UniProtKB/TrEMBL annotation:
Pfam families: Abhydrolase_1. One of its GO terms (molecular function) is hydrolase activity. InterPro entries: AB_hydrolase_1, AB_hydrolase_fold, AB_hydrolase_sf. Residues 33-252 form the AB hydrolase-1 domain. This is Alpha/beta hydrolase. Keywords: Hydrolase. The keyword Hydrolase applies.
Length: 281
């Protein structure tokens, strides 16, 4: 574990970073940077699912808590997409990672990863999106609707919302929801993220690295795979049957196989996912 300051001066931020190296001192075959989602998420979602196995497969794994999340610093403002991308840029510089990396992004983490690939095509070997989309106009509308609903249902009626979550989803989920409510109350994240600058169609089309997109069949995003494939011809989409938005947590074995395939053979045909016995579904 490390706490890393992204830059000297007032615009720097301290991020909680975890790095897993291949075992036995073997030189890594690739570097993968894992980016988590918003509000209820943190690097723990990778640490307890696919990260250790990726490292065991010979990959240098970097993961960190986004600003405002987990153990990273929580500024009051500056939560637009560009701020998250700048954190990634500066963190890789601090870690002296200069070669092309494989970016893996879950939900909003994938949006950050795609934007980084637009800005730094020479520093990205491939992008794997898990239940995620680039920051297009439709993305902005959807994220604005989500935050509007969360502010109304969770922040303005927090006690009732947390009681319902605790009764129906359990104490752990209720604690995550409470943390999300606190983040939205104490920072500008609920207004900043929806106000982020979106990518033009030309910018989306400019991404030429291999893109792997993984969705759950029960997710609303699954029906939008054609859109990304039409804009980025190198995209390979996989829809996992019986899964929803939480596919990383619910089917980590299937996601791991797809990620390993995407990292080892960028642009290749992903394997047909086969549920492993005992794999969480």
């Amino acid at each position: 574990m490390a706490m890393i300051r992204t830059a000297d001066g007032p615009d720097g931020i301290t991020l909680h970073v975890q790095r897993l190296a291949p075992p036995d001192g073997r030189p890594p075959t690739a570097t993968a940077v894992l980016l988590h989602g918003l509000l209820t998420d943190s690097l723990a979602s990778y640490y307890f699912t696919v990260a250790p196995a990726l490292a065991a497969a010979g990959i240098d794994v970097v993961m960190y808590d986004h600003r405002g999340h987990g153990r990273s610093e929580r500024p009051c403002a500056d939560y637009r997409l560009a701020d998250f991308v700048r954190d990634l840029e500066r963190l890789l510089d601090r870690l002296e990672i200069t070669g092309p990396v494989h970016l893996v992004g879950n939900c909003f983490g994938g949006t950050v990863a795609f934007e980084y690939a637009v800005r730094h095509p020479d520093r990205v070997a491939g992008v794997s999106l898990i239940e995620s989309n680039p920051a297009t106009e439709s993305w902005a509308k959807e994220i604005a609707d989500i935050f509007r609903r969360l502010v109304t249902e969770l922040v303005e009626h927090e006690a009732e919302a947390l009681a319902w979550v605790n009764a129906n989803e359990g104490g752990h989920t209720a604690r995550l929801a409470k943390s999300a409510a606190r983040l939205m109350r104490s920072t500008s994240i609920a207004t900043d993220v929806p106000a982020s600058r979106v990518l033009s169609e030309e910018q989306v089309r400019s991404v030429h690295c291999p893109v792997l997109a993984v969705y759950g069949s029960d997710s609303e995003l699954a029906g939008q795979t054609w859109r990304l494939e039409s804009l980025v011809p190198g995209t390979r989409s996989i829809v996992l049957p019986g899964q929803g938005h939480s596919v990383l947590a619910e089917a980590p074995g299937l996601v791991l196989d797809l990620l390993l395939s995407g990292i080892r053979e960028p642009g290749g045909t992903p394997p047909v996912p086969v549920p492993a016995e005992g794999d969480a579904r």
